[in-house]
Design brief:
By secondary structure, this protein is α+β, with helices and mostly antiparallel strands. 26% of the residues lie in helices and 27% in strands. It has a single domain, classed as Inorganic pyrophosphatase (Inorganic Pyrophosphatase). It has two helices and five strands; from the N terminus they run E-E-E-E-H-E-H. Strand 2 and strand 3 form a beta hairpin. The model has no long low-confidence stretch (mean pLDDT 93).
Length: 111
């Protein structure tokens, strides 16, 4: 599987796989047919935009934004036979940072 998935809240489109400076604000806990599959939620760094200056935790985002993200991930595998997704709720920025550190450590120990 992939080391870690990061969703970036942004008002401008980004090319998939691009690299930008972000800061984590939380994590959506999720499990799918392949096992645990958490999604780190991040916002662009202040040098890129000031839009998210007051967003420090996922709870600072509008509730509808979180519900839209959940809805997407609850249904994005609906048309793939044998695949499923189970949502586990949201965790705060400290949990997100811990998962990022764990992913970095896993990467360092890969063959």
């Amino acid at each position: 599987g992939d080391p870690i998935d990061v969703l970036i809240c942004n008002t401008r489109p980004l090319v998939p796989g691009c690299v930008i400076n972000v800061r984590p604000i939380g994590v959506m806990i999720m499990e799918d047919d392949g096992g645990k599959d958490e999604k780190i939620l991040a916002v662009p760094a202040p040098k890129l935009t000031q839009r998210y200056d007051k967003v420090h935790n996922y709870t600072d985002l509008p509730e509808i934004t979180l519900k839209q993200i959940e809805h997407f991930f609850e249904h994005y595998k609906d048309l793939e036979p044998g695949k499923w997704v189970k949502m586990g709720g949201w965790q705060d920025v400290d949990v997100a940072k811990k998962l990022i550190v764990e992913a970095i450590e896993r990467y360092k120990t890969q063959d």
